[in-house]
Amino acid sequence: MDWNLLATQLFGVTHGIVREGDFLRGTVEFDGEPLTVIGTTAHAPIGVQLALAQARAVLDTIAQHPGRAILLLIDTQGQQLRRRDELLGINRAMAHLGLCLDLARRRGHRVLGLVYDQALSGGFITSGLIADACDALPEAEIRVMRLPAMARVTKLPEAMLAELSESNPVFAPGVGNYVAMGGVRRLWQGDLAQALREALDDAPTQDRRAEDGAARGGRRLAASVVQQVLDAP
């Protein structure tokens, strides 16, 4: 979905979100309360500049508007694959973004992610997957890597991975599989404004991704392994 159409459905035609290149930023009114919106568009590759711009917007909200909720609009093809960004330390810039979002959560900001188009790789890990909860539109595309790339990394035949993806969400792309694994909490359908209202009302204060994955059958062991570690002497 086009970001402006989504913003209009959520906040009206005078929503106040502005686009600067692939960067989205603005303050909107929702149910009479201000809400910070930060995001990306056009399948943005997340490089040093874009990661730091998002981090700056998060820190500005923490400093200037304590407790204000933050909505992340996610559309990314992953990290920027350029030598310049690697030399500038893209790993540290993306880690900084993740730490800023974590700080916002610790300071009492509700942080929600919404994958409205595409979410891949590190660009998704350091945004939606660090939010209190990450939701998605049904038509969104989510994956960590394509099966051919996964085959090269794991040294397993692509045909084997394709067969595994039929029964195991961990190996398969697609928004439904991320719901099954608990990475995506729910899909927004119908009245999007009402979906946002519900997402804000029941935003979790504890990370429930592993528990959700176990309950939905997509990640059967993660929650139990985490508990075993916590219970270890």
Provide a descriptive summary of the structure in words.
- This protein has 233 residues and is α/β, with parallel strands linked by helices.
- It has a single domain (3-205), classed as 2-enoyl-CoA Hydratase, Chain A, domain 1, CATH 3.90.226.10.
- 45% of the residues lie in helices and 21% in strands.
- It contains 11 helices and 8 strands.
- Strands 1, 2, 3, 4, 5, 6, 7 and 8 form an 8-stranded mixed β-sheet that branches.
- It is globular.
- The mean pLDDT is 92.
Q: Report the mean per-residue pLDDT as an integer.
A: 92
Gyration radius (Cα, Å) is: 18 Å
Low-pLDDT sequence parts: none
Q: List the domain count as a whole number.
A: 1
Beta strands, count: 8
In CATH, what is the class?
A: Alpha Beta
> In percent terms, what proportion of residues is strand?
15-25%
In short:
This protein has 11 helices and 8 strands. Helices cover 45% and strands 21% of the residues.
What is the topological layout?
Elements: H1 3-11, E1 18-20, E2 23-30, E3 33-40, E4 44-46, H2 48-64, E5 70-79, H3 83-88, H4 90-106, E6 111-120, H5 121-125, E7 133-136, E8 141-143, H6 147-154, H7 158-165, H8 175-181, H9 192-201, H10 209-216, H11 222-231
Parallel strand pairs: 3-5, 4-5, 5-6, 6-7, 6-8
Antiparallel strand pairs: 1-2, 2-3
